[in-house]
Amino acid sequence: MQTNRPDWSALMPILPEQGPRARAIYAALRQRIEEGALPSGTKLPPTRDLAARLGVARGAVVAAFEMLAAEGFTEAKVGSGTFVAEAVPCLVPAGPAPVPPVFVARDLPGDLGLGFPDPQSLDRLRAILARVLARPPAALFHYGDPQGDATLRAEVAAYLRAARGLRLDPAQVVITTGAQGALDLVARAVLAPGDPVWMEDPGYPSAKAAFAAQRLVPVPVDDEGLDVAAGRVLCAGARAAYVTPSHQFPLGVVLTMRRRLALLDWAAEAGAWVVEDDYDSEFRFAGPPLAAMQGMDGRGRVIYVGTFSKALMPGLRLGYMVLPEPLLAPVIALRGRADRAPSALTQAAMAEFLAAGHFAQHLKRARRRVRAARDALVSELAATGHRVRIPEQGLHLVVSLSDTADDLRLAGLARAAGLGARSLSAMSMQPGGRKGLVIGFSGHEPETLAAAVRRGLAAAGLT
């Protein structure tokens, strides 16, 4: 195991004040040691290099180092250099011991059930990444295309045409850092601050955060999905509508065909954009495949957003969106000003992962695993007397509670007992929202999930 400290000596900022050079260099180094900026064990710059950097005679630097050593601030190690001594005075007042940062899961149920990648898929992806690093393409040594790697965009376009029924050209695809990155680009490049935006209510909290600069219009969701007629009454002139039509988050309903057509008609009439978040479309367990709304849109009003986070792993930070042609220029320009381009390394690996058929194979295995977890969760809930809508798609389900239940408190009790539950009412924009628990089930073995359900429901007093 590597135990040596990293050697930052060549970059160390040393700025002596005016006066005799040896004394000034000594004072500057001593101050940084006493303030804790140079902790014990830190290597100091070689005297020759520091003298050249400061434009002074090497003798002045040697004299400064000798003064520091004489006072016990530094020690020389033959053949290695000069280092800050193990025990030195520190002028920084002692305070309480630093507390290591702890990640606290916020009530953002979009993170529920992201799960873990299939180990076999990880092996293949790891091998691809190793090959890319062993024989790196030229793109890795340059700033990439803000729109994303052309090869990956072509593979994504082929996948979306075949699996989701989209009508698109690779030139319409923009590679993003996940779905959240796509929503942020839309909010900043397509919409203006204060523009009214329809939001599903209840809906996805992270989408509300992405459109925080706009005026959010909560539109109710029923068994047919977003109520378009209600949206027209609330704000017919909205500039956009954010929807999850294939599997509404969090209720799990599907936007019916008549509502889809009504939404597209409204968008065309109002000159508005429909932001279609297809966040978990890969995980459909029953019924006919659901085509995306973008494939039905003949008037160019749909912005399609997808991600590899749910199907593979969020750590890849790869997503995509399909844009109508008029929006490409402003979105790509903003991307270039923000983070310039996606990671060339992960894009190259993902392009090969798709082209070689590994992603399709992974999805077959992942669907089986997720379905088994879903069935275990449903079975355990049924055994404790809870009726739930069995999801035909997705990575979570909703346990409905009475209108008088404090689902925020109950969700907290369930989480403390190890069950990944979130409050349904917390996802409503209007007071008095429906009460329930949103429970994710991907990434868990059925037995582990069943045990967590028993513990969580018992802790919340729901058994």
UniProtKB/TrEMBL annotation:
CDD domains in the record: AAT_like, WHTH_GntR
Gene3D superfamilies xref list: Type I PLP-dependent aspartate aminotransferase-like (Major domain), Winged helix-like DNA-binding domain superfamily/Winged helix DNA-binding domain
Keywords: DNA-binding, Pyridoxal phosphate, Transcription, Transcription regulation
Domain HTH gntR-type: 19-87
Entry-linked SMART domains: HTH_GNTR
Domain of life per record: Bacteria
InterPro entries per UniProt: Aminotransferase_I/II_large (IPR004839), HTH_trans_reg/aminotransferase (IPR051446), PyrdxlP-dep_Trfase (IPR015424), PyrdxlP-dep_Trfase_major (IPR015421), Tscrpt_reg_HTH_GntR (IPR000524), WH-like_DNA-bd_sf (IPR036388), WH_DNA-bd_sf (IPR036390)
PANTHER family for this protein: HTH-TYPE TRANSCRIPTIONAL REGULATORY PROTEIN GABR (PTHR46577:SF1)
Family to which the UniProt record says this protein belongs: In the C-terminal section; belongs to the class-I pyridoxal-phosphate-dependent aminotransferase family.
Protein name: GntR family transcriptional regulator
Organism name: Gemmobacter nanjingensis
